[in-house]
Design a protein that fits this description.
Blueprint: H1 38-51, E1 53-57, E2 68-69, E3 72-73, H2 81-84, H3 89-92, H4 106-116, E4 120-126, H5 147-152, H6 156-166, E5 170-176, H7 201-217, E6 224-228, H8 237-250, E7 255-256, E8 265-274, E9 279-288, E10 314-317, H9 335-347, E11 351-356, H10 366-382, E12 390-391, E13 400-406, E14 412-418, E15 426-429, E16 436-441, E17 452-456, E18 459-463, E19 474-480
Length: 490
């Protein structure tokens, strides 16, 4: 993933170019570098925006040492072990001779993902280590030359893409621009320098473009291309725009994240001393920067208030402390936390990409499977309040979050996601009574529970019995003729 010290809380790529989005824009207005109109762009993004939930997979040679090198624990992310362990390239490369995930089963993986309720997955075809987890004619550092590839003549990406389509899951490839192994990548720093002291970055760009071509032409229609590692100065907005154009020529319907170009928005943390006590004050400033891509990618965080309407974004999160597998990382987030993160992202109009880090033998840790199964059970009941929804209109509440959806009959559903029972077991929707149509409990334990309401002036007062409670989040559906437009509605 991205450098730990660089947090990319990105907005949209070329779609906005740093301009505030306006719902009144002409639907035929050109919005990106390939001449796509706003109407065309929204149509292409619709399935992704409706999906709301995907699974990230970080898997590579780094899964073999699993956070340990020569008997010593290497801190931080498992997939960064070569960097944090200061491992020479020539010492790391022989891991290719150990990669033999004999227990890998694409159908099992996809069953786990399908059962989680996720609508798409994204897997690391090449991470920063430079190892290609697919059969490629570009270079030798790839799965073709592992025991797994030599003995079985198998192609992990082919098996995964086939299994995904069979189960109705959309396919996404992650690809790192940064490459510690390739001698032509630049810049090369410190212990990561190659014997070749004159890297030719143009040759590396050619290598990367050729691999992108393979990934988009050898495995059927690919739905998402997810870039990373764009921070070095050698990679520019111009290169990102050119690559984006090329990708869209090969795959017109594909969706590409904003890291294909330079990070469009940075979070600048400003610290200053406050008088004598030298108290540190931290403020956040969002700086708009031009870039390519279709959606923003805040990492390991949820934007406090989401973004402007029309901005597509997806937060990626780990289940524990690492992306790539670490055998010593048992600091797992609870299922409650994960479900509430999904709800929070949806309530702000964003997607939630939740990571799993498979082991070197090709199995997914049971802790990850258990949590994904629980998320799936919750979504099986409450999915209508997540899939196909738009951002909520109530903002962040002490009792939880909200999402909205336009119903087939033209009315609007306002979904209330309860994290905690509100004061006096009541929620007051001020200014909503005139638009009220119906009220229903969605959560499994509450379907037979009567949720009552009263009207006070134009306020809708919803009363909830304690029997409504779900251990992760309870959902109430409020059907309205429309969302009240008066400024007192809240």
């Amino acid at each position: 993933m991205i450098r730990p010290f660089l947090i990319c809380a990105a907005l949209l790529g070329t779609v906005l170019y740093g301009q505030e989005y306006s719902a009144a824009q002409d639907p035929q207005e050109v919005v990106n570098v390939i001449g796509e109109t706003k109407e065309q762009f929204q149509k292409r993004m619709k399935w992704w925006n409706d999906a709301r939930f995907g699974v990230f997979i970080h898997w590579g040679l780094y899964s073999i040492p699993a956070g340990e090198w020569k008997g010593e624990t290497v801190p931080r992310y498992g997939e960064w072990i070569i960097r944090h362990g200061k491992i020479a390239i020539d010492d790391y490369a022989p891991l290719i001779d150990q990669f033999n995930p004999t227990k890998f089963d694409a159908n099992e993986w996809m069953s786990v993902i399908k059962n989680s309720g996720a609508k798409y997955f994204v897997i690391t075809t090449k991470h920063h280590e430079g190892f290609s987890l697919f059969r490629t004619k570009r270079g030798e550092f790839n799965i073709t030359n592992t025991p797994f590839g030599l003995n079985n003549d198998r192609d992990i990406m082919k098996e995964l893409s086939f299994a995904a389509r069979k189960q109705g899951v959309k396919v996404g490839w992650y690809y790192s621009i940064l490459d510690w192994h390739n001698p032509n990548y630049a810049p090369q720093k410190g212990f990561l320098k190659h014997k070749n002291q004159n890297p030719d970055f143009e040759k590396y760009v050619e290598f990367m473009t050729n691999q992108t071509t393979e990934l988009l032409t050898n495995y059927g229609e690919i739905d998402i291309l997810w870039y990373d590692g764009e921070w070095d100065k050698t990679w520019t907005d111009e290169r990102g725009n050119n690559l984006y154009k090329y990708i869209r020529e090969l795959a017109p319907n594909i969706i590409v994240n904003n890291r294909v170009g330079k990070e469009r928005t940075k979070e600048k943390i400003k610290s200053k001393n406050k008088r004598k006590n030298k108290e540190t004050i931290v403020t956040t400033e969002l700086i708009a920067m031009p870039s390519s891509g279709d959606f923003g990618t805040p990492e390991q965080k949820l934007p406090p208030n989401g973004f402007e309407p029309g901005v597509y974004w997806e937060t990626c999160m780990t289940m524990n402390k690492t992306w790539g597998y670490r055998k010593d990382d048992h600091d797992w987030k609870s299922t409650e936390t994960l479900i509430r993160q999904l709800i929070d992202a949806s309530s702000k109009g964003g997607n939630y990409l939740l990571n799993v880090g498979p082991k070197a033998d090709g199995t997914i840790p049971q802790e990850s499977i258990d949590r994904l199964n629980e998320i799936g059970k919750w979504l099986e009941v409450n999915g209508e309040a997540i899939y196909g929804t738009q951002a909520g209109v109530l903002g962040k509440k002490a009792w939880g979050r909200s999402t909205t959806k336009t119903l087939d009959n033209g009315n609007t559903a306002l979904y209330l996601h309860l994290f905690d029972l509100p004061k006096d077991n009541k929620i007051a929707l001020q200014g909503y009574a005139e638009q009220f149509v119906s009220l229903a409990a969605i959560s499994a334990k509450s379907r037979d529970v009567a949720v009552t309401y009263t009207v006070n002036n134009n306020d809708l007062i919803i009363e909830m019995p304690e029997s409504l409670w779900n251990e992760y989040a309870s959902v109430i559906k409020v059907e309205l003729k429309q969302i009240p437009k008066n400024e007192n509605a809240k």
